[in-house]
Amino acid sequence: MNKFSQFSQEWQPKINQKLADDLVLISPSRNNTEMQPMLAYALLNGGKRLRPLLTLAVLQSFQAKISPDDLRVATMVEWVHSYSLVHDDLPAMDNDQYRRGQLSVHAKFGHANGILVGDALLTAAFQVGTLASSINPKRLLKVINSLALRAGVTGMVGGQFYDMQNHQGQAITKEWLLDKVYQPKTAALISHALLAGGYLLDLPAADCDLLRQYGENFGLAFQIQDDLDDYQQDADEEIASLPHLIGVAATQSVKANLLSDARFCLRKLAQSHLNFNAELLDQFLQQLE
Ligand code: GRG
Known about the structure:
mainly alpha, Farnesyl Diphosphate Synthase, 13 helices
């Protein structure tokens, strides 16, 4: 088994457990027993947990010991990601009845509850951060700031805003799609996951920047792979994606360049840190090849 599979198999269950435990800790069950199962349905339904895995992979790559509060901080982004999927599935957005092979939250519990469950998950992300009392407050503040920047109007929400214009059939270009939609909508949260690792380790700003760049390149490649998969399933889909705009071969070459730029960041980190082992983060990139 390679390092990536070993690492994922070790940490996915621990991430799931932390999410479940923290859901009880921040639980509305004392005052709202009806919403509790809705939140659990949205949060604990079998995602890959890619973003927390990336934060933990940074810690592991620098040979750091991962504490329970490191794990907690790594999961904050997953609460945000979970909310974004619930809202993305709503009738006013992508209008999807299914998510991860089961009914989407609004299809199961109703539209209004879909909105409210998303709102609660987003708020909980930051509440969970306040539970990580053993983390140095300056480091935690950097994580919180990065998450807010990359989840909000300067990140995922802003990218989703432009994505909605794409859904309305606007004429678009490759540059517009990459800069206005893919980067903020998908790559921003993924780059947060890398930065969170750098902040937890209190790495110098230049190294955090390399992690951010790795994350942005990886995140764009991740979105492009998702497009390629969708395009293979349905090339006539109405929403314009990169393969629609420039064709499959050119899209694959954009992805290959992004992966190669991400590898460059790993090499630079390895040059300045003797204790940095690039293999695991390299294997995350290999998942997209
Ligand atoms: C509603 C503000 C708001 C934003 C929604 C995340 C998102 C923004 C939309 C999802 C659309 C989509 C399919 C994007 C492609 C890349 C992506 C984020 C896929 C889903 O992430 P995974 O593969 O999902 O990490 P799992 O299920 O493993 O958690």
